[in-house]
Amino acid sequence: MSDVKLWDFHGGIHPPERKALSNRTPIQPAPLPARLILPLGQHIGTPAEPIVAVGERVLKGQPIAAASGRVSAPLHAPTSGTVGFIGLQPYPHVSGMLAPAIVIDSDGLDEWTTLEPCADYRSLEPALLLERIRLAGISGLGGAGFPTAMKLTARPQEKIHTLIINGAECEPYITADDRLMRERAAELVVGIEILAWLIQPEQVLIGIEDNKPEAIAAMRTAIGERPFSLRVLPTKYPSGGEKQLVEILTGQQVPSGGLPADIGILCQNVGTCVAIHDAVLLGRPLISRIVTLTGEALARPMNVEALLGTPVSELLAFAGLDETRMDRLIMGGPMMGLTLPSLDAPLIKTSNCLLAPTRSELPPPPAALPCIRCGACADVCPASLLPQQLHFFTLGQGHEQLKTHNLFDCIECGACAYVCPSNLPLVQYYRAAKAEIRELEQKQHKAEHSRRRFELRQERLRKAEEQKEAERQARAEKAARAKAVEAESASVPHQEVLPANPAAGFSDLQKRLKIEASMAQVALKKAEKQLAAHVTAELEAQVAELRAAAEAAQKALAAATAAAPAGADAALKKAKIELAMKRAELKKAEKADADETELTRLREALAGAERNLHAAEEASDKPAPQLVRTNKRPLDEKLRALKTELAFARADLRKLERDEAADPPALESARTRLAEAERRLAEHQSE
User: Fold this and answer.
1) Are residues 109 and 215 part of one domain?
2) Which of 10, 415, 575, 634 could make a disulfide contact with 613, Cβ separation 3.0–4.6 Å?
3) Tens digit of each residue's pLDDT (9 = 90 or more) over 195-220
C-alpha cells in the first residue's frame, strides 16, 4: 500500500493513554450470569416492545422484543432460561434511573434457538440482506447506538461514495476494538465486504491510530489483495469521532447539523462490522459484545466477551475488583464516560468499557473557579466551537443563542474541560443545556400537535354544521314551495279564509266599470228617496232614466269580468309562491341572528312580495281573501336550548366512539355530558 495523504482536524488533545493495562491478554469469555437484565432501549430511537410473557421459557438467540418504530432495533435472549420479570430495572445512567427491561433467569444450559446461516451472502437480494441485519438487532457498537440497518438505508440523492471503517479507538484506557482487530480480523474484513456489497461505495477506508501496531498488522494480513485502503492515523484525541475521522481521511468537513451521509460518506465501527458478519454468515443476532474491564482497582484488567444484560458487578468481580480501592465506576472512558451510581446496572449494546480507577489514578477535579477567558477551550475544540460562549449562554439559559452557536455540534469529547485552568465542568453544562432544549422542543411539538388536532376538529365540526344548515335550508325551501302551491286554495299558515269581498280583485277596466256602476246605483237610490218624499212626474222620469243607466253599467261590469284574461290567475299563483319564499327566508335569518342590514333587506323584499300579491289579486278574477290572524303558542326557548345541547352531546360522543385514538378520559367526559343533557331535558319536560 502506497503512502496516502492525511488531513488534520482543529484542536484535539493528547491525554495519557493507559491502554497497556488491558490490552496485554486475549479476549476472555465472561462467566454465564444467573440473571440477565435487558433494557428495551439500548439504542438511539424508540425502545423495543416485549413479545414474551413472564414465565415463558426462551432459547439463546430467540427474539424477546420487537422493533417498535422506524428508528428502533429488536432484542434477543442472550442465553436460554425463563422470563422472570418485565418492568422497571436499573439502567446504566448517571442518574441511577430505572428503565423498562426484560429479566431472564438463566437455566445454565445456554441452549441456542434454530439459526439460519447464509454461506453466500451475494446470493441474497440487497433488501433481504439488509433485513437480516435489521432482525439481528445490530446497532452501532462504537458508542452512539444508531440502528445499523437504518443507517445503511441512505436516500437515493445521498449516494454513498466512501465507506469508512472506524478502528481509531482514541479514548484512553479502552482497548476493546484493538483486541477485536488483533483476534478477529478475518471476520471483520468479511463484515466490511458485506457492507461494501450492500452500498457499492467507490472506496473503502479503514482508519486505525498508530498506537495499535499489532491490530494494524493483523488487518493488513486479513485485507490481502482486497481493494480496501488501510490508513494509519497519528494518535490524537478525539480522532475516533465520526466527523473528525471523516476530515482526517478525506479532508472533507461534515456541515454543521449534518451527517456524513450528507456528503456521501458512511462510517461504521469495527465491532459493528464483526456483528454484521455473525448475523449474515452465522445467523446469530447481537447478544454479546467485547468490553474492556480496566482501572487500577481491578486485579486482572482485560477484555471480555460478555452477554448483554450481565450485571456490571459480576464482570468487575471476574476481573478481581477491590471495592475498597475503587473511587468510582465509569462506564466508558475517562473523557466521555459516565459515572454509575451503583453496580446493579447491566451491560448494554453501547457499553464498551468499565473503568474502575483508584482515587490517586483519577483524582476528582478541584473546585470550579470563574472563567478567566483564556481561550484554551476554543483552541482544543475538535468541532471548532466557542466553549467559553456556550458556557455563558448555558448559565443564562440562552437557548436560542446556544442553537445559533451550534451547541448540538458538540460531541461531548471533554477536551475543553480537560484543558480548562478553572476546572469548569463544561461538558456537564452542555449536556444539561441539550437536555433542556430537547425537552422544550418536545413540549412545543406536543403543543403544536394538540393545536393542529383542535383546529382540524373545529374544521370538521364547522363543515358538519354547514352541511346540516344546507340540508335545513333545502328542506325549508321545499316546504315553502309546497305551501305556496297549497296557497291557491288556502292562505298562508295560521290564516283563515273568509268569504271574499265581491267588489275586490278587478283589472283597470273592471275597476272603472265598477266605479261607474256604483255611482249609477248611488244616484238611483238618491233619486228614489226624493221620489218617495215628493212624487212628481219629473222625478219619476229621472228615476227611470237612472235605473236604466245603473242596469247598463252593471251589465258592462259583468261582461268585463267574464272576459278577464286567464293569465291573471297564473300571476296570482306566482305572487303567492314568491311571498311564501320571502317569508321563509326572513324567518330563517331571524333564527340565525343575522345582522340588521341583512334583516332590513329581507323585510323590504317581503313587503315588496306582499305588494306584488295585492296587485296580482286585483288583476285576477279571484276575490281577495279576508285574513284573520290566530294566536300562536309562545316559543319555549329553554326547551329548544336543551334539545340542541342534547343533539350536540350525542353527536360528539358518537364521533369519539368512532375514533380509535380517542383518549378514555375524553370518552368518559362525553358520556357524562350526554347523560346530564338527557336528565335536564327530562326535568324540563316534566315541569
Assistant:
1) yes
2) 575
3) 999 999 999 999 999 999 999 999 99
> Are 130 and 66 a contacting pair, CB within 8 Å?
no
- Same domain for 624 and 642, yes or no, is no
Which pLDDT does position 495 carry in this prediction?
38
Question: For the range 117-125, what are the long-range contacts, defined as Cβ-Cβ under 8 Å and sequence gap of 24 or more?
Answer: 117/281, 117/282, 117/283, 118/280, 118/281, 118/283, 119/281, 121/194, 121/197, 121/280, 121/281, 122/197
Lowest pLDDT segment from 44-48, 101-105, 188-192, 555-559:
555-559
**Where residue 565 falls among pLDDT bands split at 50, 70, 90?**
low
> Is 416 labelled a binding residue?
yes
Q: Which three cell numbers stand for residue 66?
A: 420487537
Q: Is residue 59 part of a domain?
A: yes
Average pLDDT of span 66-72: 90
Residues 501 and 589 both lie in one domain: yes
Residue 344 sits in the same domain as residue 395: no
Helix ranges (DSSP H) in 163-202: 176-183, 185-199
**CATH code of residue 313:** 3.40.50.11540
Question: Is 413 annotated as a binding-site member?
Answer: yes
**367 within a domain of the structure (yes/no):** no
What nine digits make up the cell of 204? Answer: 473503502
The range of the structural domain enclosing residue 646 comes to 637-686
Same domain, 474 and 584: no
Which of these three, 355, 370, 394, is where a domain ends? Answer: 355
DSSP codes, 462-492:
HHHHHHHHHHHHHHHHHHHHHHHHHTTTS-S
CB 353 within 8 A of CB 406: no
* Backbone angles phi and psi of 330, in degrees to 5: -115, 125
Q: Domain boundary residue among 629, 653, 672? A: 629
319 and 422 fall within a common domain: no
Helices (H), 278-327: 312-318
pLDDT in tens, 308-333: 999 999 999 999 999 999 999 999 99
Cα separation, 239 vs 211, in Å, equals: 12
- The residue assigned the cell 489514578 is 361
Say whether both 560 and 613 belong to one domain. yes
- Strand, helix or coil for residue 13: strand
Q: Which helix (H) or strand (E) holds 264?
A: none
Tell me if 410 is assigned to a ligand binding site. yes
Asked whether residue 374 is marked as a ligand-binding residue, the answer is yes
381 assigned ligand-binding residue: yes
Asked if pLDDT for residue 609 goes beyond 80, the answer is yes
Are 348 and 408 within one domain?
A: no
Task: Provide the number of structural domains found in the chain.
Answer: 4
